[in-house]
Amino acid sequence: MIEASRLTSLWDQRWSDSPPRADWLKHAYQSRWVRFHSLPGSKRYPTSDDEYATVLHRHNTVLEELTDDPNLLLITCDWGEIEQPEPRDERLRALDPAGTLWQALPPDDYRESWTYLYISERSWMRGVLDPVLRAVADDILAGVMVAPGNLSWIYHPYDGGADVLLPTSGARDHIRERHRDWLSAHPSGL
């Protein structure tokens, strides 16, 4: 398991323009960011087994293309008051039982509560993150990030799709072209 201090050091080397807040990264690294929608027509929430299958297929396809490391970091978060070493949310504890506290981020202009980031490691294989991805699709979990141990890329699933942050704009362009049909029609890419 990666040590919290080593992960913080890696974050500062690779993603220093943003704190480890999943929803801030797309603004800090717009030239290396692409958003994929998880359902056709930019539908936000799945309502059938077929739609859940599509959501999971799209997430797993992109993760499979990104992953060249046998282990991935899963970063999950919870919110609350200071002095919260364990997640309060029982669903988060059930979905990420190995998660250990990485960082506690103080309140800011966006959130009035503390943000607690937890890390765990998963051996990559297609489907290993499906319970987490499904909880994100159902808006049960938020602020989730997936990354290799060296943090060379960040995958941030959200209810409706995923933000992908890559090491270069060229890498971003390559994956964007591969999945053109999953992009937003909005000019900003949102």
Structure characterization notes:
The protein has 190 residues and is α+β, with helices and mostly antiparallel strands. Helix 3 crosses helix 5. The longest helix has 18 residues. The protein is globular. It starts with a helix and ends in a 12-residue tail after the last helix.
Short description:
The chain has about 190 residues and is of the alpha+beta class.
User: What profile does the largest beta sheet have?
Assistant: 4 strands, antiparallel
Query: What is the rounded Rg?
Result: 16 Å
Strand order of the largest sheet: 3-4-2-5
Count the DSSP helices. 6
The class by helix and strand makeup works out as: alpha+beta
The protein's oligomeric status is single chain
How far from one another are the termini?
A: 34 Å
**Cα shape:** globular
Residue share in helices? 25-40%
Strand content: 15-25%
Order of helices and strands: HHEHEHEEHEEEH
Low-confidence stretches: none
| Averaged pLDDT | 93
Q: How many β-strand stretches? A: 7
